[in-house]
Amino acid sequence: MAMIQVTVNGEGYRVDVRDHWTLLDLLRDVLELTGTKDGCSEGVCGACSVLVDGRLLRACLTLARRVDGSRITTVEGLGGDGLGALQRAFVDDGAVQCGFCTPGMLIAVTALLEAHPDPSEEEIREFLAGNLCRCTGYARIVAAVKSAAAARTAGSCA
Questions:
Q1: CATH code assigned to 2-77
Q2: What's the whole-model pTM score?
């Protein structure tokens, strides 16, 4: 066991973690933040994507003790009190179907828009290549990202 300190979605935690626990274990089983999904446990599907100190990481591959002292953002931390503009774009553009991949997609798109505020369709598709969706065919997800980017550019999305 090791004691770690993390800030998750702006809230500080001191937690005892076992050596083998992943960040996904910590988030879902200890902190009860179940928005981050376990899709494959191999880092392939992107459902467990989170931001750690602003970097996009797979929570299923990251040992919990490795994030000691880090700031972590999960899907629960994106919208504030309600839906954020990115989440609203996903709803408005029909980019959500079953919803299982959506948390990871939203986190990945957050990282994308930080790095590339006005991404091309090709950049969006390339960036989201590590996030699997079996329902939408990606067209509506790409449209939602373009909508969110336009809203950010217009100043209506923080």
A1: 3.10.20.30
A2: 0.93
Task: Name, in order, each residue with C-beta under 8 angstroms of 99's C-beta and a sequence gap of 6 or more.
Answer: none
Measured N-to-C along each axis, helices 102-115 and 139-153 cross at an angle, to the nearest 10 degrees, of 40
C-alpha span between 72 and 10 (Å, rounded): 8
85-153: which CATH topology?
A: DNA polymerase; domain 1 (1.10.150)
For 132, half-sphere exposure in the C-beta direction (CA atoms, 13 angstrom radius) is 10
pLDDT at 141: 96
Residues of the chain short of pLDDT 70, as ranges, are 156-158
Rg from Cα positions in the chain: 15
For the chain, list the strands marked E by DSSP: 2-8, 11-17, 49-52, 55-58, 71-73
